[in-house]
Amino acid sequence: MKPLADFPLDSMNTLGVKSKAEYFYSFGSVEELEHVIGWARSHNQPLRLLGGGSNVLLEPDVSGLILQSAILGKHCVRDTESQVWLKVGAGENWHDFTQWSIQNGYCGLENLSLIPGLVGASPIQNIGAYGVEVSSLIESVEVYDLEQNQLRTLNKMECEFAYRDSIFKRSEGRALIVLNITFVLDKSPSVNISYPVLQQHFENANIAKPSARDVANAVIEIRQNKLPSPSETPNVGSFFKNPVVDEDQLSQLLKLHPEMPHYTHGALYKIAAAWLIDQAGWKGKAIAGVAVHHQQALVVVNPEHQNLDVILGFASEVQRDIQQKFGISLEIEPQCLASIELDRSAAW
Ligand SMILES: Cc1cc2nc3c(=O)[nH]c(=O)nc-3n(C[C@H](O)[C@H](O)[C@H](O)COP(=O)(O)OP(=O)(O)OC[C@H]3O[C@@H](n4cnc5c(N)ncnc54)[C@H](O)[C@@H]3O)c2cc1C
User: Fold this and answer.
1) Per residue in 97-123, pLDDT tens?
2) Are 133 and 270 in contact (CB under 8 A)?
């Protein structure tokens, strides 16, 4: 077991950024992980975690050791008449898992079909699409805690899930490596087609009671028509988060822009970032080879494989303009890989 030095990451990030890791290691078991953590401690290397690279911003040279979980497996750990508990390895491909679960007669993941990446990253930003967030289907997350040097299981409450957020994105959860996730899925067909685009799809198709397979197929079709494929046009899906505002801010904004799309979000309101970007005239606009996609204003594309500085420069132009025109600050969704410093005094 030895990490690979100067490991190219060009094909491991969907934004197509040229990048290389000082060291890289893909672990397939807890034993391998413990070995490689020992190596990092003895070589004084910080750790960073990478999944499928579909939601990250990579610097040209990433220092330290990048770890990727290749833990596989989909096991039924509990079963009742109406539900099944599946423990799934972090290294499984997310889309393949969603389709496998539907084939086996389990319901819940269909709206999350075709999201790129690995299962292990799904709780990090609490992935969501077409009216479903993964947190609604997670019972617990098994992690390796680099501060306590032990395995732990976080229940759903402890994961502190929120919109595109969880404990894993915050400083108190950064030292947690996701190993396995336990999902609770329904055995009975109880699909969620409350999202307007899905409702419309089934109305047009004249299907009153769609199955999980029907919903997955609809989601796949809608996504393929709407979103550029990263293999053809490098991107990370939504580049900006939908801004969340309170009632006062919303009513101020609606006075100026009565047609602005907004949705309730608990006690707050979500504003469609795509609408703001489109209204500000950014759809299809490019600077130095980086552009807002011509059909989907939330997606920043990088067809010329520009480096991170150019991409962030472009994003800050968009952010500055939206701030100026609407007084709203847009937050970037993908993140640079956080560096985890290891405590060298920890016993091994
Ligand atoms: C075309 C396209 C469409 C997309 N659509 C959606 C969508 O509809 N909804 C949505 O929510 N997202 C969407 N995304 C974003 C992305 O696919 C998801 O966030 C996905 O979960 C990222 O998975 P990944 O394996 O690629 O993770 P990475 O991008 O490799 O990593 C993401 C984050 O997770 C951390 N991480 C990864 N693995 C682990 C681990 N085992 N333990 C601890 N931390 C870890 C990384 O450090 C990083 O901070 C889309 C992206 C693309 C390119």
Assistant:
1) 999 999 999 999 999 999 999 999 999
2) no
Measured in Å, residue 334 CA sits from the centre of ligand 1 at 8
What is d(CA 325, CA 82) in angstroms, rounded to the nearest whole number?
A: 51
Cα(313)–Cα(278) distance, rounded to whole angstroms? 19
Q: What is the enclosing helix (H) or strand (E) of 85?
A: strand 83-89
From the centroid of its chain, how far is CA 42?
Answer: 32
**245 CB contacts (<8 Å, ≥6 apart)?**
253, 268, 269, 271, 328
What is the distance between the alpha carbons of residues 180 and 29, in angstroms, rounded to a whole number? 11
Question: DSSP character for 240?
Answer: B
Q: Is the CB of 89 under 6 A from ligand 1?
A: no
3-state secondary structure of 252: helix
Query: What residues contact 22, with CB distance under 8 A and at least 6 apart?
Result: 5, 6, 45, 61, 62, 63, 64, 65
* CA angle at 154 for the pair 153 and 159, rounded to the nearest 5°: 155
Residues 183-192 pLDDT 10s: 999 998 889 9
Global confidence as pTM: 0.94
Active site residues: 164, 238, 333
**Ligand 1 pocket member 91 (CB < 6 A):** no
DSSP string, 219-237: HHHHHHHHS--TTTS-EEE
Decide whether any atom of ligand 1 lies within 6 Å of the 52 Cβ: yes
Residue from 203, 331, 346, 340 nearest 276 by CA: 331
The backbone region for 64, taken as left when phi is positive above 0, alpha when psi lies in -120 to 50, beta otherwise, is left
How many whole angstroms from its chain centre is CA 119?
A: 10
Give just the sign of the alpha carbon dihedral 301, 116, 142, 85.
positive
